[in-house]
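Input record (one chain):
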Amino acid sequence: MELIPLVQAGRQIIERYGPTGFRISGAIYLGPVLVFAEETIIWTDSAMTAEALAPVVARGGVELLLLGLGRHMVPLAPALRAAMKATGVAVEAMDTGAACRTYNVLLAEDRRVAAALLPQR
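The corresponding structure, as predicted from the sequence alone:
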């Protein structure tokens, strides 16, 4: 699915998502990714744990983390939500398509958002 809203130049926009990966600002990524306004990185430890999401906290400046959990949303463990909240990062879990669309809209609004995305398998 094509996803191209109006955003500032140099921002990481999620253009496509699918069962194997993503196209973000013209680059193809196979597998899970962490998307920040300034860069996208391969998410090597894509477990839904505070340790796996540590790169988001370490980067700083993120107020909201969108978790794209694949084709179907699953409930987020309360302990993970609490651990992230303790670091100042709110977390919202949803299916990957919804996370991609929401990320693009919030990025266009210049919000301090990041996305941890699993492909839609």
